[in-house]
Structures are given as C-alpha cells and as structure tokens.
Design brief:
The chain is mainly alpha-helical. The protein has helices at about 1-15, 20-45, 55-70, 75-90.
C-alpha cells in the first residue's frame, strides 16, 4: 500500500507540471479518493507500516490547493467541491492546512 501511495503522489506531481485545468482537478480529486480507500489498509497495518497515511495525502492536498489557486476558482465552487470530496472520503480528511475555505 505504501508503494502504491508513493507512486500515486508522484503521478499527481507529474500531472501538475502541466498547465492547470478542471479535468486535472477532477483527476486529483479521484487520486485523493483512491488514497483514502487505500489508506484504510495502511491504518489497519500500523504496526508494520513505514509510512503514515498523511505522508501521502499531504502532497495530494498540496497539489489540489495549487490547482485551485492556479484555476482561480470562485470560492463558492471550491467550497462545494471540497464538501463533496470530504463527504466521499471514508476517513477524516483534514484540509485546514492546505485550503482556506471562505467564511460565512
């Protein structure tokens, strides 16, 4: 699981070297959801894991934040996308350090 997570993060990094697009943002959302599912196995094997699940999700969330900034999305759209993403995740997704949600 760890190797798959690292490869996923590396692929997202390569993807984000291209000009930002909404399709790219959709792919990063899918990568976050895939890692969310895989990370459950890593959490279950905490006694033998060499990587914390956050070590993979952090670069994915950084890429997501960077794409949102590059695309200059409306704050309401960012909030809606994040809410849908968080609802689809099985494990707690802490986005507070990566993306500032508009207040109000």
């Amino acid at each position: 699981m760890e190797a798959a997570g690292h490869r996923l993060a590396a692929e997202v990094e390569i993807l984000c070297a291209r000009p930002a697009s909404l399709a790219m943002l959709d792919l990063v959302e899918e990568a976050i959801l895939v890692w969310d599912d895989l990370s459950g196995h890593l959490r279950d094997a905490y006694h033998i894991a060499r990587t914390e699940p956050e070590g993979i999700i952090d670069p994915l969330l950084c890429a997501y934040s960077g794409l949102c900034d590059s695309l200059d999305l409306d704050p309401e759209e960012v909030t809606n996308r994040l809410n849908r993403l968080i609802e689809r995740c099985h494990y707690e997704l802490d986005i507070s350090g990566y993306i500032d949600l508009p207040s109000g």
